[in-house]
Amino acid sequence: MLPQEIIRKTRNKEVITKDEIEFLVKGIASGSLADIQAASFSMAVFLNGLTKEETLNLTLAMRDSGETLNFEDINAPIVDKHSTGGVGDKVSLMLAPMLASCGVYVPMIAGRGLGHTGGTLDKLDSISGYKTNVDVKTFKDTVKKVGCAIIGQTSNLAPADKKLYAIRDVCATVESIPLITASILSKKLAAGLKYLVMDIKCGNGAFMESKKRAIELAKSIVNVANGAGTKTTALLTDMNSVLGLSVGNALELKEALDYLKGKTPNKRLDVVTKELCCELLVNSNVAKNKDTALKMLNQSIEKGYAYEKFIKMSVSLGADAKVLENYEENLPNAKYVRPIYAKSEGYIKEIDTRKIGLGVIMLGGGRTSPTESINYTTGFTSFCQIGDKVDAKTPLCYIHAEDESKIKEVSKLIVEAVKTSDKKTKASSVIIDKIS
Ligand code: URA
């Protein structure tokens, strides 16, 4: 087969065969396909799309480009959740131990921050000793022993995705529905899941801003995942405001641990976390309906089971239990913490959520180049929610910074990003839609 002839077909909107797709994907993984050819293929797909069958074949070929895990020796459902990325999205940190406390197993392969969105791995890296880059054996052992493990993509898990993703990132082909579908699902399916729930973020802090595009992506992922034998549903959730009260790595980790301890959960964060958990518990028949699932989840927090699972998982992956048990004192804190006030008092009407994510990057909490090390302590806490009243005493949020000179610039960005109104405002529902 000639790679240029296959790329030519996609360029000309002709359908390519399973064998042709496998040939390209093997070439990407082995390096026999030149980066310029992989880039051209990704641009042809970006411009012309792929059929459902081609998308399924691309996903399966990428899944099979490296090692695939199986947990067949575990006699319980193997489940996972994946989010398309948001600002303040710390759901995975709570969902994995909560589900593990309810009797299912969660082998979660998570990612680092991407663009303005935060990444679960960066949040976990703020725990000293926690290793997100362990080998497959440690990962599997932790899943079996604890019920959940959250780590990064190992070098041999869907390596074609790793390469193609890096190429897409620098040639403007990230926002393609078939490519996102194959990229996300190749990693998820390689982890040996039987049940998956997708959190498709929608709004000004998400990659898919419009509901129409978010639904298109949800349908594509649900179709392909079910076609590949993993029972999958998707929830469309609102990303027109920060999820929860904190944004930034260690700050979000603290909010997640507070939540697992049953302390003052933020309503929207609580709803998204539990709805996603319920999908998995009901789909896997561990709970007969949503009410039963909610009872199990509430118990996992009230009895301290989920918090305990989080500690056990972290210790199994290298963390010191003592640091986590006293996390409020032991997790790193920023040097400067200052309130940010709105220009005038009023009710929060609108938040340009993408800018809040960019604010974290400007404070050093995210990367501006792939290998950069980041600052775990920086970000925002007590972030206002749509409908909240702010005035001269109630700030929009508190900024956490290591470098005092950044505070002015980032505070200005936050003030500009949050719009107030004289009239009372109300937040829209956080769950927008469900795709089964
Ligand atoms: N996350 C991924 O893993 N891949 C994409 O293409 C987009 C988001």
Describe this structure in words.
The longest helix has 17 residues, at 211-227. The chain has helices spanning 3-11, 18-30, 35-48, 52-63, 91-101, 120-124, 136-146, 159-170, 177-190, 211-227, 249-260, 267-283, 290-302, 305-316, 321-325, 327-330, 353-362, 407-417, and strands at residues 79-83, 106-110, 148-152, 195-202, 231-238, 336-340, 346-351, 379-381, 389-390, 397-401, 418-421, 431-435. By secondary structure, it is α/β, with parallel strands linked by helices. The mean pLDDT is 95. The protein contains 18 helices and twelve strands. Strand 4 (195-202), helix 10 (211-227) and strand 5 (231-238) form a beta-alpha-beta unit. Helix 4 crosses helix 10 (211-227). The chain has a four-stranded mixed β-sheet, with helices on both faces. 46% of the residues lie in helices and 14% in strands.
Terminal-residue CA separation: 38 Å
Oligomer: single chain
Structural class designation: alpha/beta
Q: pLDDT below 50 for ≥5 consecutive residues: which ranges?
A: none
Helix and strand arrangement:
Elements: H1 3-11, H2 18-30, H3 35-48, H4 52-63, E1 79-83, H5 91-101, E2 106-110, H6 120-124, H7 136-146, E3 148-152, H8 159-170, H9 177-190, E4 195-202, H10 211-227, E5 231-238, H11 249-260, H12 267-283, H13 290-302, H14 305-316, H15 321-325, H16 327-330, E6 336-340, E7 346-351, H17 353-362, E8 379-381, E9 389-390, E10 397-401, H18 407-417, E11 418-421, E12 431-435
Helix pairs in contact: 1-3, 2-4, 2-8, 4-9, 4-10, 5-11, 5-12, 5-14, 7-14, 8-9, 9-10, 12-13, 17-18
Uracil binds at residues 111, 165, 174, 179-180, 183-184.
